[in-house]
Design a protein that fits this description.
Helix content is 48%, strand content 14%. With 271 residues, the protein is α/β, with parallel strands linked by helices. It has a single domain, classed as Rossmann fold, CATH 3.40.50.720. It has a seven-stranded parallel sheet, sandwiched between helices. α1 packs across α7, α2 runs parallel beside α4 and α3 runs parallel beside α5. The chain starts with 6 loop residues before the first strand and ends in a 5-residue tail after the last helix. It comes from Neorhizobium lilium.
């Protein structure tokens, strides 16, 4: 175990997947780590203190931050990882379903960040890392609503970083591609299915399943989060994994028509 004291870290959505791998990596590196889950779980034996929090509930978020500050006295690092996915045609989801998705993936980030910022400002330092996705900067057919939440987090994070620099606080994005987690199994289904999208939706489900099998391990993303958390000159964005780096490069330098053609081919859509 590394005895270096790097401060206090709070990781949302830390019971499984990227969140859990991140919490472990931070704890091993020398952070005192608090993780959250929507449902109560036992404190893990690896030294991560787990707390219950619903990021869609103001009171739950306020209590979370109060409990962490009561126990540790400060919060040096916030990892906004909690989120959910949705696969289907954009028009297959009701406004209510879209709002529920945004409440977790976007407003949940806003809630936790706003609750933590007063403590970070008092300290005169802090680091916030928001888990985005390559779908935060590329088109994402049949993930339009999920992609929209990640695009929102990208704009929010870049803007917030400029606002918070005078207080010694920096904000960065970590952008994974496909990662071998339970994300695929937990994808929400549209609440107003349309027969016209059945074939394309089924095809996309197969594409995602195959891609997940070849995706990066959560630990790959966790190591990038750790890099972003400890980088003395933090960057706006950190691509997590080989595919994410490739997609980021292609999006920046390949002409739009060529990128779109390649994307449709990769997803099995008519070119």
């Amino acid at each position: 175990m590394n005895n270096t004291n790097l401060g206090v870290a709070l990781v949302t959505g830390a019971s499984t997947g990227i969140g859990y791998a991140t919490a472990k990596a931070l704890q091993k590196a020398g952070f005192r780590v608090f993780g959250t889950s929507r449902r109560a779980v036992a404190q893990k034996s690896d030294g991560i203190t787990m707390l219950t929090c619903d990021v869609t509930d103001d009171a739950s978020v306020a209590k979370l931050v109060e409990d962490v500050l009561a126990a540790a006295g400060r919060i040096d690092l916030l990892i906004n990882n909690a989120g959910m996915g949705l696969l289907g045609g954009a028009e297959e989801s009701s406004i209510a379903q879209a709002q529920a998705l945004f409440d977790v993936n976007v407003f949940g980030v806003f809630r936790v960040t706003n609750a933590v910022l007063p403590a970070m400002r008092r300290q005169g330092k802090g680091r916030i890392i928001n888990l985005s996705s390559v779908q935060g900067f590329i088109p994402a057919p049949y993930f339009a609503l999920y992609s929209s939440t990640k695009h929102a987090i990208e704009g929010y994070s870049e803007s917030l970083d400029h606002e918070l620099r005078p207080f010694g606080i920096r904000v960065s994005l970590v952008e994974p591609a496909y990662t071998r987690t339970s994300f695929e199994d937990n994808l929400a289904k549209p609440d107003q299915l349309l027969e016209i999208y059945d074939s394309a939706r089924a095809g996309m489900t197969v594409v995602v399943g195959k891609a997940m099998e070849k995706g990066d391990a959560p630990e790959v993303v966790a190591e990038v989060v750790l890099t972003a958390a400890t980088d003395p000159a933090p960057k706006r964005r950190y691509a997590a994994g080989k595919m994410a780096r490739q997609v980021s490069f292609l999006r920046r330098f390949v002409p739009a028509f060529a990128f779109d053609k390649s994307l449709r081919k990769q997803l099995g859509l008519p070119v």
